[in-house]
Amino acid sequence: MSKGCTKLKLKLSTSHLIHFLMATHKVCLSEFWAVIHVVLALSICLVGSETETARRTALFIFGDSTVDPGNNNYIKTIPENQADYTPYGQNGFFQGPTGRFSDGRVIIDYIAEYAGLPLIPPFLQSSAKFIYGANFASGGAGVLTETNQGLVIDLQTQLKYFEEVRTLLITELGEAQAKELISEAVYFISIGSNDYLAGYLGNPRMQELYQPEEYVRMVIGNLTHSIQVLYEKGGRRFGFLSLSPLGCLPALRALNSRASDGGCLEEASALALAHNNALSAVLATLEQMLKGFYYCKNNFYDWLLDRITKPTEYGRSSLKQNAWGLSLSIISHTHRFKDGVTACCGTGPYGGIFTCGGTKNVTEYHLCEHADEYVWWDSFHASERIHEQCARAIWSGPSNSVGPYSLEDLFFNIERKHTIADIADYPKDQQMIY
Ligand SMILES: *[C@@H]1O[C@H](CO)[C@@H](O)[C@H](O)[C@H]1NC(C)=O
Ligand SMILES: *[C@@H]1O[C@H](CO)[C@@H](O)[C@H](O)[C@H]1NC(C)=O
């Protein structure tokens, strides 16, 4: 409704402008058409920018340390689940450590930036406002309640917190506007690694109870349920970070007693792969089952494995625009990754003993000079440079590794693509509930 009004207003002012130009300038016919073209182009730009600034798509984040912006600073947990001490956050983007498990930003900070949003605050930060979204993620959290139980905000509790925010938004904005915000928002979910690492491989009892494939089914079953809960609450646009090759985390490489050459721990990577494949199948099914369900899933597993095995082929890239306005990604030779195996911050083989400041049992740690040159920041977590590059890939990503929608589509292009699909697939009178 409001969008229609905006367009009408612009149309009126366009024709007024043309009349004004005709009257004041006595233009001949060809000049008149030229003017119309210019004015039309102008009004299209106006419509574009007006909708973008007026309506910003909110971002809600659920997950673990890959996307925790500092929720764990506010809970009683163990040093392994916290990152609110130096050298975390050392690279200068933030004033100091924030609780992010990185030398600086994490993936969702970049996604917020690309979406034109401010940094999305941790839900537990008492002063936070949630008009652009909220981040519920907690380092160490898993899909299953049993994973690191009592030490993290598990996914079910994250969903409860989301309900609190939803209620708050309804109070603040009114039912209609809150509903619109919630249905247009993007829900970014990055979780599962801890279910397989701490929850399964680190938990002999679980391994006795469940075969690996049964366990994966249980994790995926609960994750699917959580997605459906969010859908029932009004969520429609979902982004997923798939699991990385978990066996190649420095901590797991260091544990791999069988490989004297320092290979990845294959059991861990196999669980991650099984999880990713099952999630892909579930998402394709949900897309068929749930009206208006849109998602973006990337292949973070292969993406990261490439950088782990061939670090020097990737690196800090800068976007340059060519003469046609196309953005080209240039990797300068001096800014390539140098190490895909060892943690920048840690100790022992591959920096795989998880210690990097704070009050961990092993207090001595080694810190590299240039975190930018490392795929891994600490024994479990990627460097800011990896977060940035991954965010860029998933934002606009090549369609062979990101799909069916990119995150940029979810934020800005769903309505346009949705309309095109409508014309192609549906009879005119059939409306999709959105
Ligand atoms: C969810 O996980 C619990 C264990 O936390 C399990 O008992 C239950 O069967 C799982 N649900 C689904 C739908 O897989
Ligand atoms: C650290 O030390 C405490 C107390 O000695 C012990 O309970 C805990 O399991 C240790 N943690 C790790 C990760 O080794």
From TrEMBL:
InterPro entries listed in its UniProt record: GDSL (IPR001087), GLIP1-5/GLL25 (IPR044552), SGNH_hydro_sf (IPR036514), SGNH_plant_lipase-like (IPR035669)
Gene3D superfamilies for the chain: SGNH hydrolase
Coiled coil: none
Keywords for the protein's UniProt record, in alphabetical order: Signal
Keyword Signal: yes
GO molecular function, one term: lipase activity
CDD domains: SGNH_plant_lipase_like (cd01837)
Source organism superkingdom: Eukaryota
The family this protein is said to belong to: Belongs to the 'GDSL' lipolytic enzyme family.
PANTHER family the UniProt entry points to: GDSL ESTERASE_LIPASE, GDSL-LIKE LIPASE/ACYLHYDROLASE
Protein name per its UniProtKB record: GDSL lipase/esterase
Originating species: Dillenia turbinata
